[in-house]
Design a protein that fits this description.
It contains 16 helices and nine strands. The chain has 407 residues and is of the alpha/beta class. 33% of the residues are buried.
């Protein structure tokens, strides 16, 4: 007879393979998490995309401004902050003054403004820390996390306009380049603690962005990989024509030119030429979308950040002047009824609460349509005139006390 096979359950003392497999999987998971943490730390510290030929957080306007400012010495300093309204005026005036092209993102010291303030006995150095598209929340984060940890300025000039508080093309505070590159976990907690309703998707997005640098750089990594794949395919298949910008700046299928993902150097500001902008009509349509409909929740958030910025300056004993920046009549006509008056009232009340002087430069002649390159940004020929007018106002402001005016 053949032997009978009988199943017997393993006794308590026998060896079971299941715990071994479970332990191996747990160890593998822990090793994977450790490797991911190490990679995340490397990305956070080393900034591996800083030399990549693509537009990314490491080579964006905020990072470049941060690097330029950290090279500043300890001499008396006056800083100008705000959006492209401030940036265009100061860089255009500087290029005209130096009579040579300047790199918009890199050239942050403003010798023209220093000359206008040279009668102060302290002879302050002037720096333009304005960022294109900056909101009040961005100004606050830039001051808190970039400027103050490096060097405390002696005086601060903050240019504001309605778009700094009302912009329908900006999805949320955490969506900006400044927040993504400069905000820490405490800033994220502060942001959500002040919201009445928390969007779970936004919460996950911000949390992952702060905890995982790899996730925060995901778009940059994707763009870089796409560029490398295109270049590899081009080397293997030279007959393939990708979409590129030709010598005339037209995007078309060609085997020569610049890939859309590629960025070389930094935009240049040329003497006697306005900073490149969209056509006037396109800009008007763009701002029509930004202004209307009014987003009351966004207004409340941005005015809150503006007040926190002024409070921070008061705590650090930094003299501040807020400048209501010029806008053309055509642009002002796009602002919904009542909002411009509301904007000026909120800005005025905040300045009064923190003993900050408000200088209104949205006045004649700086509201005439002919003064602007695109209805929003002053033309290059007007920039020096505007800064002269502004600096005359600064001479009789609180800023003067920081530098002991000599005349």
């Amino acid at each position: 007879m053949s032997p009978t096979l009988e199943y017997r359950p393993a006794s308590k003392g026998s060896i079971n393979a299941t715990p071994v497999k479970t332990g191996f999987r747990l160890s593998a998971a822990l090793c994977a998490m450790l490797l991911l943490a190490l990679f995340n730390g490397w990305v956070s510290v080393s900034h591996p995309l800083s030399d990549a030929p693509t537009a990314n957080l490491d080579t964006g306007e905020v990072r470049r401004a941060e690097a330029a400012f950290k090279e500043a010495d300890a001499d008396p300093k006056i800083l100008f902050m705000g959006s492209s309204l401030v940036l265009a005026s100061m860089t255009q005036a500087e290029s005209n003054f130096l009579a040579k092209p300047i790199a918009r993102m890199v050239h942050r010291r403003n010798y023209f403004t220093e000359q206008l303030l040279s009668d102060f006995s302290a002879r302050p150095r002037a720096y333009c820390m304005a960022i294109g598209g900056s909101m009040s929340s961005d100004d606050y984060l830039l001051l808190k996390n970039v400027i103050l940890p490096a060097h405390k300025p002696d005086a601060l000039v903050i240019g504001v306009a309605p778009r700094d508080f009302q912009d329908n093309l900006m999805p949320s505070v955490p969506s900006t380049e400044t927040f993504r590159s400069q905000a820490n976990m405490f800033d994220a907690v502060e942001y959500f603690s002040r919201k009445r309703r928390i969007n779970s998707n936004e919460l996950i997005e911000v949390a992952l962005g702060r905890l995982c640098a790899f996730y925060n750089y995901r778009t940059d990594i994707r763009d870089y990989m796409v560029l490398r794949i295109k270049k590899t395919m081009q080397a293997c298949m030279p007959w393939v024509a990708f979409y590129r910008y030709d010598e005339h700046g037209v995007l078309r299928p060609t085997r020569h030119g610049q890939f859309p993902e590629e960025v070389k150097g930094t935009p240049m500001i040329l003497p006697n030429e306005s900073m490149p902008h969209m056509p006037v009509q396109t800009t008007l349509e763009n701002y029509r979308l930004r202004y209307a409909p009014i987003n009351s929740q966004q207004n409340a958030q941005q005015f809150s950040y503006f007040e926190r910025l002024l409070k921070l300056c008061r705590e650090r004993q930094i003299k501040v002047v807020v400048v209501n920046m010029p806008l053309s009549r055509a642009n002002l006509a796009l602002v919904p009824d009542g909002f411009y008056a509301y904007y000026k009232q909120r800005v005025t009340e905040a300045c009064q609460s923190y003993d900050v002087e408000l200088v209104d430069m949205c006045i004649e002649p700086y509201t005439r349509d002919g003064m602007f390159a695109d209805g929003v940004h002053l033309a290059t020929g007007v920039s020096q005139q505007f800064l002269r007018s502004l600096c005359r106002r600064l001479h009789s402001s609180q800023v003067a006390t920081s530098f002991s005016k000599s005349i």
